[in-house]
Amino acid sequence: TLGETERHAAAAHAAGLVEGGMRVGLGTGSTVAPLIPLLAATGLRLRCVATSEATARAAAAAGLVVKPFDTLTELDIAIDGADQIAPGPWLIKGGGRAHTREKIVAAAARRFVVIASHEKPVPRLTAPVPLELHPFGLASTLARLQYAVPRGGAASPDGGVIADWTGPVDDPAALAQRLDAEPGLIAHGLFAPSLVTDVVVATGREVEHTRR
Ligand code: DER
């Protein structure tokens, strides 16, 4: 399908940025999925950390060396998808419930490369913004964040409750600041421009790579 072609093209472009010996952060989701076999096929000696159990399993199955999450203090490169990419670039991530580890990995990486198919760039971010809320005090957190709606389903592997901010996202910086001030919040899915070094968007087979 067009989506598969675009996800593969973006992933293949990002795989070309990875060099032997690198410490690589692997994101989570369907755009990262084709990246994993492509990285394995390079035969390069890599040390990877995964942002979810699903990614860890896929990477190990492909023959990549996956290290425990916190054994690597700094990463040379991290590659991940996004739900939405707005000018800045501001991202919304967390559709796959992995944004807490994804943000930690993005922040630990010297280079954070976002890979996306053509529908991800948007003129402005819109709800939902994924949240991970601490289970302790959940009721009081939800009372304060009146737009936060628990998503249901399994808790995050880190024990948090996945919820979604359904309110306005007109000013992502202001919303990120408000969410960061919430004691019961573990992480939110707004990724600020300071985290992102490269955006790789595929439209058909055409890849546009924007570096900051
Ligand atoms: O949940 C996540 O953060 C994913 O990385 C998401 O933002 C992108 O998932 P996709 O590549 O399946 O669209």
TrEMBL record:
Its EC number is 5.3.1.6. The keyword Isomerase applies. The keyword Isomerase applies. Coiled coil: none annotated. One of its GO terms (molecular function) is ribose-5-phosphate isomerase activity. Keywords: Isomerase. It is an enzyme of class 5 (isomerase). InterPro entries: NagB/RpiA_transferase-like, Ribose5P_isomerase_type_A. This is Ribose 5-phosphate isomerase A. The lineage of its organism: Bacteria, Bacillati, Actinomycetota, Thermoleophilia, Solirubrobacterales.
